[in-house]
């Protein structure tokens, strides 16, 4: 019943949609430009990636094996790019470079090694997601093991504990209480990961089935509903900081799940788009480098004195185009810190 763990074309496309939404969000935000993509994608942009990660959850050979694999795929890239960001930011600021770089506030190398617990001093802001996703994996592994030891049906236990995690995360956000290392964000995000796992294990919706002919109808209806709700209720959401207004707290899981399923079924209906699917396959490479790359293009574009929207669109084009050269280069030179090869032997 479940989708197998081999590579699936439309999953790469869904990941491609996700990373494009992330890049557009960061570049538009850097130029302080309002974008419909950012406005209406905020409720499902990150839930989509947590969902896709949950689809392929596997316990492997036990917790030690699981921990090694997730360390290779998530913690090693996080640690490497965090260190690179810390050293690079320190050098730039030391030599008087513009302090407005994304995520930096008077940054120096010494505190950088421990200040990842503070959201306002986090270098290379996008890589927070790797640490958060690692924590989500660990939390879900514990929930999965607890469900095996319960007399109740496993699915019910997973649902109940996942919802409890989400509620705790939302309460912490409502109280403006941050747990170091984005643990509070992980608690809030865990239900999306669990949903991906449960949907894959208990339904055939991710496999070819007789209802696929209705996918596009659902996609249009679902995205329309999420966009309308976002327009009317104006949710403000920052999952990295685990901050949201009341509307976002109420809409987070319904809108996040509906929007996520819309993007997944859209990808399933299309199947493959060469460029977008390529970006999706190597989305982690784009995730860990696009912040620095967009900043470099920002300073290259600035002498043109373009209006902000035009400059932002040009930056998006140049940043994404750069990956046709960078992805092959990173595959060859940096495979262990971009989740292509294992650093820790299994």
Question: Overview of this structure, please?
Answer:
With 346 residues, the chain is an all-alpha fold. It has one domain (9-337). The protein is built from 13 helices and 2 strands. A two-stranded antiparallel ribbon has the order 1-2. Helix 1 packs across helix 10 (246-270) and helix 3 crosses helix 8 (183-202). 43% of the residues are buried.
* Beta-strand content estimate: under 5%
The number of domains = 1
Calculate Rg over CA atoms: 20 Å
Order the strands across the largest sheet as they lie in space.
Answer: 1-2
The low-confidence parts are 92-118
Number of strands: 2
The number of distinct helices, counting runs of at least 4 residues, comes to 13
Query: Cα distance, first to last residue?
Result: 28 Å
Mean pLDDT rating: 87
Shape: globular
Structural class: mainly alpha
- Residues in helices, as a percent range: 55-70%
Assembly type of the shown chains?
A: single chain
Q: Largest sheet, described in full?
A: 2 strands, antiparallel
Q: Secondary-structure element order, as H and E?
A: HHHHHHHHHEEHHHH
């Amino acid at each position: 019943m479940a989708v197998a763990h081999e590579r699936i074309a439309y999953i790469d496309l869904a990941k491609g949609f996700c990373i494009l939404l992330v890049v557009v969000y960061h570049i538009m935000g850097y130029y302080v430009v309002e974008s419909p993509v950012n406005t209406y994608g905020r409720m499902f942009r990150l839930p989509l990636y947590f969902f896709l990660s949950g689809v392929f959850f596997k316990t492997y050979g036990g917790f030690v094996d699981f921990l090694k694999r997730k360390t290779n795929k998530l913690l090693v890239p996080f640690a490497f790019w965090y260190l690179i960001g810390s050293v690079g930011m320190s050098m730039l600021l030391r030599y008087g470079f513009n302090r407005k770089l994304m995520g930096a506030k008077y940054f120096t190398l010494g505190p950088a090694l421990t200040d990842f617990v503070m959201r306002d001093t986090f270098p290379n802001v996008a890589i927070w997601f790797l640490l958060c996703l690692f924590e989500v994996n660990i939390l879900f592994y514990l929930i999965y093991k607890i469900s095996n030891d319960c007399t109740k049906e496993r699915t019910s236990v997973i649902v109940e504990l996942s919802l409890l995690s989400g509620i705790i995360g939302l309460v912490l956000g409502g109280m403006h209480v941050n747990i170091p290392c984005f643990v509070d964000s992980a608690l809030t995000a865990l239900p999306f990961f669990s949903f991906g796992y449960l949907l894959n294990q208990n339904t055939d919706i991710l496999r070819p089935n007789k209802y696929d002919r209705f996918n596009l109808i659902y996609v249009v209806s679902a995205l329309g509903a999420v966009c309308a709700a976002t327009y009317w209720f104006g949710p403000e959401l920052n999952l990295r900081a685990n901050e949201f207004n009341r509307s976002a707290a109420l809409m987070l899981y319904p809108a996040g799940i509906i929007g996520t399923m819309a993007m997944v079924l859209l990808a399933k209906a299309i199947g493959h788009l060469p460029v977008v699917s390529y970006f999706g396959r190597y989305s982690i490479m784009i995730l860990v480098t696009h912040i620095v790359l967009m900043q470099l293009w920002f300073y290259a574009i600035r002498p043109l004195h373009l209006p902000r929207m035009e400059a932002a669109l040009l930056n998006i084009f140049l940043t994404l185009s750069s990956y046709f050269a960078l992805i092959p280069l990173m595959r060859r030179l940096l495979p262990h810190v971009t989740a292509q090869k294992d650093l820790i032997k299994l």
